[in-house]
Each structure stands twice: as C-alpha cells, then as structure tokens.
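Researcher: Hi, I'm a grad student and pretty new to this. My advisor asked me to get structures for two proteins we've been looking at. I'm not sure of the right format, so I'll just paste the first sequence and hope you can take it from there.
Model: That works fine. Here's the first sequence with its structure tokens right after it:
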Amino acid sequence: MIDIASDPLVWMPADHRLLDDHGRVMPFLLLGDKYARAVKVGAQAQPVMFPLASADEVPALLSLVDGVVLTGSPSNVHPRHFGEAVADPSLPLDEARDEVTLAVVRHALAAGIPLLGICRGFQEINVALGGSLHQAVHTLPGHLDHRAPKGAPIDEQYAPRHDVTLQPGSLLHGLAGGAPVVRVNSLHGQGIRRLAPGLRAVAHAPDGLIEAVEFTEARAFALAVQWHPEWRCWDDPLSSAIFRAFGDALRQRRQRRAADARAFAAAPELP
C-alpha cells in the first residue's frame, strides 16, 4: 500500500495529444498506465504529474519529488534539438513535452535526483546532453527494423524481439545478475546516432545500435534503456531488478530529504 506521507514521489511527464472527444478533436495531457503501474508496483512509489509545467519551473518542481521516470511515447523528440530537419512529417512530435523533459534531464542530473529513461525518455536524455538521433533506424544499411509489428496483438508487440549484449561491470550488467546477454522487446523507430558527452553505452543490439546508457559521473541512480521494461515488469527478472533498484534509490533520496527537513526545523532562528 502506498503511503503518501512517506513513500517516494516520482515525476512522470505528460504527453500532449489531440484525441476525439464526442466527435471533436480536443487536447489531452496523458500518462500511460503501464508506466505509472510499473512505478507503483515495481518501485513501490507514487507516480505524480505536473502536466502544465514549464521549463523555468523544473528546478522548483524537482525539489518536491524523489525521482523521475521519462516515459516512452508515440511522439518523437523534435530533430531541431540536434540540428536536423524533420525527415518524416507524418510522424508525431511533442514540442511541449520536449521543452520540459530536456530541462528535467539536465537539472535532475545536476541535483543527483534518481533518473530512469525509457524509449523516448532514453532518446531525450541523449539529446538533452548534446547527442543526436537516427530518425529512421530501419532505413540504415545493416540495421534491424526495431519497430513493433503493425497490427499485432499487444502481447506480441511487447514480446522479446532481439538480444542485447551488456557491458561487463555496468550497473545494468549487475542488475541482470552478470548475464552477458539478455533478450528485450523492441518498439522504436529512432535510436542514438551520436552518443552525448557524459554518457557511456552499456548495451548494444546485434546490429550495433545502442540499447542502454549510463552516466559517467552520476550522483544517484541514472539509467536509460531503449526497450520497455515497464511492460509487466513483475514478470521479467531484469525489468523487476531495474524498478527495484530505482525504488531503492528513491527511498534513499526520500530519507535524505526528510533528514534535511528535520535539521532545518531544529536549527536555531537567526537574531
């Protein structure tokens, strides 16, 4: 059971979508159930949203939470953030989300706030720190088609699709119990092209595409993966381990914040 007074709070970004509302197209602010449920069940924490946050509010809002999960999304990071034009105008973008999440990455890392990136979130982290993306991995010679099979049942879309090779000694390698290779799902069209400074690749697909990154000088738990560990995370040992480790980091930050608050309350007032 979640205790709002003591359990960690995890900021999860809102997707900005236009959806049908009684025959009219209306704007919605959305969070996928599978991401929120993985945080609540897998990390034993409470998901929270600040759906109308702006970039200048990010530092203050981060001070209220114990960690951040940057979720996947149907939309892509706008390529102007890495100096390119849009290659396929038919694909969805979400510049309102970009404005907030790219700022969240930089401020969360600077403040030592636990951070987990998934799919789009993985790509946001790379772009926020100065990296770039392939806009259509499936068009690259020698690369796999990493997109989900169209029209397939949801369980088939999220089924394991390919192996990833893990970097020995990495956080992810440890969470996998020292396994050199794990099998993951694959539901993305874009991927890392130029790795950002401060990141190191810790997992690769058979075609060489980077599948996970860690931070060379992280002050707290900081991991991002291209696949979707949130999908029924309780059924997969590595996914469970990722969210459990993230949850442990959240509770450590929660305890530090509580200790700081007690110390502040006990401090004598200045004359």
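Researcher: Oh nice, that was easy. Here's the second one.
Model: And its structure:
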Amino acid sequence: MTTSNLDAVFIAQRTPLLRTLIRMVKNPSVAEELVQETYLRVATTLRERRVDHLEPFLFQTGRNLALDHLRHMRMQSRTMLDDIPDDVIQAVPAVTSSAEDRLHADKLLERLGASLSRLTERQQRIFIRSRLHGCGHAEIAEELDVSPSTVQKELKLIMAICVETLSRLETSQ
C-alpha cells in the first residue's frame, strides 16, 4: 500500500474511526487527536513494511491508541501527581498514619490551600481542570483561549509552588 492509498482509505474511514474512538474515550477532542495520531502511525508503518488490509489495520491502530490513552488516564487519575517528584509523593502519610502524621498532613494541606489560593483565577482553573478533571493541555488551552505551551508553563509554575510549600513545611519541623 502506498501513502495515496492510505489517504483514500483514511478519508473514507475517518468519520467511522472518529465515532469509534469517541465511544471509547468519551471525549471528542481527545478522539480527534487519536485519529490524527492513527494516521501518522499507519503512515510510518507503511514506510517500513507492507500492510495488506489497510482498513482493519487503521481501526486496530486507532483502538490501540485509545486503549493506551485510557490506561494512561487511569494511572494519572490514581495519582494526579505526575509532575511531582517521587520523593514528595513518598512523603505523604499512609491512611493508617499516627496522630503526628495526620497533624503534619493537615498543616501541609492548609499551607497548600493557602499557596493555591494566591494563584490567579486562570492558574486555579488550569490546576483544577488538569489535576482534578484530568483534562489535557490542548483542551484546557482551547477553553481558556491560550496556547497549550502557556498551560504547560502555568502547570510547571503551580507544581513548583506546591513543591516549595512542601519543602518549607519540611524544613520548619
């Protein structure tokens, strides 16, 4: 198969592929990104090897990308802390913590809350959409009418504030 064959199959199957991916990820903008990634992956594969049944290969590639995305989101939802260093995460007390650990955690939450309340309204919205709702940079950027790199920079700043708050609490004890 050639790239022109891929283009013809992709154009013909784009809408059904998009519908399939929307059903899987339940987010039209993410599904649209996955459709684009599917095209790129299939085009790359075609440059490396022959694919006899392009349409099923296109759909399987899209489904695999959607499943990868869902796995990633499941892992992210378990932690919601992918920008925080592991040593910081390990410092969070376990559920069966002592009274001292609970007091420490309460102080940390109080100080984090105070630090986050000083963020601009836009920064707070970015933090909430990213960390609590699991939205991607592109989706947040579109909602706030800013660039994805602005969202990424703001999140880095917010995470730096959180880490600094934690380190100040650690050094005061």
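Researcher: Is there anything I should tell my advisor about the second?
Model: You could mention this: The chain has two domains: 3-79, 86-171.
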